[in-house]
């Protein structure tokens, strides 16, 4: 299947999606051409789901950066919190930058079915993101108790509470899982920006790339629909919205 044919399947749900490989290539071009830095001067943190498919489909060129430091847990929420962000900030090269890639993920099979993918070695499709689908199932069945966060399933309970706060919006949507993923993205984006605001970085720039990571079957690869691309110049405290770079 050609690249354009694969993109056509993904873009039925996410019209601005690009391959994750193209996302990384565009970012590296920006870092080298506009910031005059080498990838080896960039310390990466990702706040994406701990699902193994995200490691399997992680583009090889991303390893030209330093890291990644892992901020995220289930469906990408930055569960390491302020301590994790502070630890990551202390690892960056002095004359370099930090790059934070964050957001939830969702599966789209080659048949165009949202919420599932065909994983390597399996005979049947499986859920993606399983945590989001599980929390959504509880929401649809009125099984989420407001404020219920336990020690034994803390991360899942947080995802449940995020969806519970937007229950009416999600359940009235055309596709509940698609909308739930949007809701989770917004919660992650808000928390990442809060953590960045409260953290000191001893480097030149903070690069924020907020997105929904779209996984597909093992022979399809992964895709990214980018929702935020901000660059903070720490010397001037100037913040630029550079999202059009990815939406040409």
TrEMBL record:
<dbReference type="Pfam" id="PF18599">
    <property type="entry name" value="LCIB_C_CA"/>
</dbReference>
<feature type="domain" description="Limiting CO2-inducible protein B/C beta carbonyic anhydrase">
    <location>
        <begin position="19"/>
        <end position="232"/>
    </location>
</feature>
<protein>
    <recommendedName>
        <fullName>Limiting CO2-inducible protein B/C beta carbonyic anhydrase domain-containing protein</fullName>
    </recommendedName>
</protein>
<dbReference type="InterPro" id="IPR040703">
    <property type="entry name" value="LCIB/C_CA"/>
</dbReference>
